[in-house]
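Hello K.,

You asked for the raw outputs rather than the summary table, so here they are, unedited. I folded two proteins back to back in the same session to keep the settings identical. This is the first:
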Amino acid sequence: MPIRCTLNFRVSTVFLLVSTFLSCHSGGVESAVVTLDSIVIYKTHEWLASEPTVYFQCQGGNKTKLPDVQKEHVLYSFNGEESWQPLTEFESKKCKRCGFYEEDSIKSDDVFEEWEFCPSDFTAPAGKYVRFNAEEFNATFLCLQCTAYSNGSFRICVTCFFSILPTQIGLMQLYNTFLRRECQDLESFENICIA
């Protein structure tokens, strides 16, 4: 019986560690959605008197046109529920090369600015990031999930571990109690059969 109890303790310990690890990392990769909160453009690049077509794009991503943004020195605010939102998504803490552009009817599109757009740029707790170019634009982005990347997933995993630990210990005790009762029932049954 002592050998069996030691084995049960080892199985319970392994169960505790594996289930806690899996609960911290369940769900796979969660994407962090980035939306545009507000933007002001300071100058357009269009030579003709037509209204500009401003868009946002990350390298290898879709072109997201901003249909409302048409005039200089006007603050455009958004609630994140527009049909063209979100602007982009981060699948990890890796940065993306992104920028604001203006469609040009004659030559290649004009560039307001391109930069390395990173989840770590967003500040907690509001998840805001302001990109300012004195000659071109001022934009504010929102990404609540990005603050988890910038704060570090280690803290999240440690918090998860210690919040789930009491439940796992309780399940381990319940399992050990069940095994002890099974052993006692088996011993009682063997004693009855021998007698």
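The second followed immediately with the same parameters:
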Amino acid sequence: MSTIQLKLSSLLIFVILSLELQLSTAQYDIFDMGLDNPLNLIWKNRQTGHNHDMSTRINCPTYDNNNRTGTCMTSTSCKFQGGISIGRSTCRLWNTCCVFEITSNQTSNSRVTYFVNPPNPRTRTQPHHVHIQLLQDVCQLRVDIISMRLAPPLVEPAMPAGVTSTCKDEYLQIDPMTSDNTLPAFCGTQNNQHFYVHLDQHNHWSTFTLSIFLDRPAAATSDATWDIKITQLECPRYRGTHDKQAKTDRNQLANDFYLLAPRNCLQYFTEPRGEVYNFGFVPTTMSTLTTNQDYAICFKRQPGSCGISFKVNHFFLRSKAPCDEEYIYIPEAVDTEKICDEIPAMPVTTLESIHPGPLYIHFHSDSVVETPTGQHGFHFEYNNVRCQNKKNL
């Protein structure tokens, strides 16, 4: 081999290694003046507490039947961290879309993690905990309950009258709790639901724990099952010239910003139209709300929108006028702001809230309510209303 060929081969090897290093360090510029030795990034990022590994910050779709969301990283890193490599997807060269599924007493530091039930969970009564190591600048967690089947709320008589409906036998719980997190109890059947956890960045928490408590005998005829997606969302902050986080993927931050919920919103719907229903509502079966709930459901105002409308598919709450025990409050609703009791499915009822402020509804339930007599809860179809001629967007 001639000298020129050797030089060209050496140059090609150097270029390939440089590209691999640049991609594996996830978009850090190796000529950044803040870095003395780019190779040190690989080791410095392996720290406990806040995870600074940029490879766990870029989401990617899997395009499979499970409709999972993964994170871009090298296949070696994916295997080393216990992930499942799905394929390249939208990731860059030499990276793979890695999906993280954990069951019980496991830890994940991925942007997106799936908490799934272990095999045969009905024979176990101990809690199932998963721990999420928080990335730097994470200010919210979005928890999507894809599906969950636990024991229903326990309905008990109260003195001197009425009933309580609480999650006592089996339920989902989070830790830590903050003053901003007025979370209701989660039990029974939950499908395609979500909620937000607002983190207090001044407390500098490094870990978030999600737990499911079971109390199901071995002779039970059905399994307790769950499939829960946990997404870490970052709040933008100023980064100095030499900050190693300065070269964060801007598209990912833009995606996070779109999903960030307004303060104190338990749920946040970002699409212009869709369905909203109470936790535990199952249209085809009898279900009941848990008592002692008080939270806000928020909706993203779309460009050109002057309000929001709600088509009532089902509405039955255990309270009558003046709606003190259990109600939904819709700010500046055209007909009435506070609704309770029962709204029949026919004729079709549509409620409109036309005003310039944030779009939300407020659900409230006392600790003791009237005895339920039917399918209990609410199910609306919402739609942003265009200001011009007040047509749906």
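The CA atoms of residues 180 and 295 lie 11 Å apart.

Happy to rerun anything if the numbers look odd on your end.

Regards,
P.
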